[in-house]
TrEMBL record, chains A, B:
GO terms for biological process: phytochelatin biosynthetic process; response to metal ion. InterPro entries: Papain-like_cys_pep_sf (IPR038765), PCS-like (IPR040409), PCS_N (IPR007719), PCS_N_sf (IPR038156). SUPFAM superfamilies: Cysteine proteinases. It comes from the Eukaryota. GO terms for molecular function: glutathione gamma-glutamylcysteinyltransferase activity; metal ion binding. Keywords: Cadmium, Metal-binding, Transferase. Its EC number is 2.3.2.15. Residues 1-184 form the Peptidase C83 domain. Pfam families: Phytochelatin. This is glutathione gamma-glutamylcysteinyltransferase. It is an enzyme of class 2 (transferase). Gene3D superfamilies: Phytochelatin synthase, N-terminal domain (3.90.70.30).
Amino acid sequence: MSLTSFTSYEGRQLFKEALNAGMVENYFSLVGNFTTQTETSYCGLGSLAMVLNAMEVDPGQTWKGVWRWYSDEMLECCAPLDLVKEKGITLEQFVCLAKCHGLEARSQRFDHTTYDQFKADLYKTATEPGHHMVISFDRASLGQTGIGHFSPIGAYHAEKGLCLVLDVARFKYPSYWAPIEMIW
Amino acid sequence: MSLTSFTSYEGRQLFKEALNAGMVENYFSLVGNFTTQTETSYCGLGSLAMVLNAMEVDPGQTWKGVWRWYSDEMLECCAPLDLVKEKGITLEQFVCLAKCHGLEARSQRFDHTTYDQFKADLYKTATEPGHHMVISFDRASLGQTGIGHFSPIGAYHAEKGLCLVLDVARFKYPSYWAPIEMIW
């Protein structure tokens, strides 16, 4: 099993198939807010900023000028930003942060759920407006360099068992299709 | 004539049609590097950073950590950044900046070209790898608030005469399809 670049010929074909299968419901709003994590440890914050902007949540504060908009360094809640800059955030802190900003959020740990439930959650993410999935994973499990990482899922190709990872560390790994078994 | 949101039902349908017509050649690399201008006057810099990252140009300097990657505030050349922060850049400075970073670039002014040439350029942008178009326009001409603005074109729907504007001021105007006559 291996990853497929989103921009490759094969990656585009996969996208076309997923689009035609109606499995990209939240892709458009997410990709329109695709962002690079602004610090190397802000993968959790960058992923959440994407989801918040995709869902058009009002941050209740201005970003720059008169504009209300989320950028990752505005997400200080549940953990002090200094500490996040040093260590990143945990899955619990991610959920806490999402709730802090008005989202309904729940975490689903690998060892406390089933593969079928994971697939059902992916299906929901791919087909129901406003349902997003952010994965927290060990890069080694995808054959990548690095350690723990967060990124949102942009689409699901159920037939071929692949999902599109909109990786917020774009300077390192541009978007890719990953076998859901590897993600699992 | 009016604009159509990229995330609306109609906007998605237009994308599907453009995709199936093979008119989104440079969309995937561009959208994978979609960015928000980091200052309200950095629309030109943000647009160019997207194109440079989409074309995988090596900035020859690190962004953060060990990573070589473009963000808009790294684009200081042709005009001092302090001045850009205050006034933005001109079309000439945009072209100068693109050349500074190793791209072949040319500007095409509305009053020095023809509508047919504009459509031919759009077609090239939509079908040939590595050909990008960034438009410099008066927001009023699209019925938007604001003045001069830069943004890249992500796709072209030749049949319906529309192009996809990946607007870098995403906090203000998320991506939209615009009639090419209005853009022209």
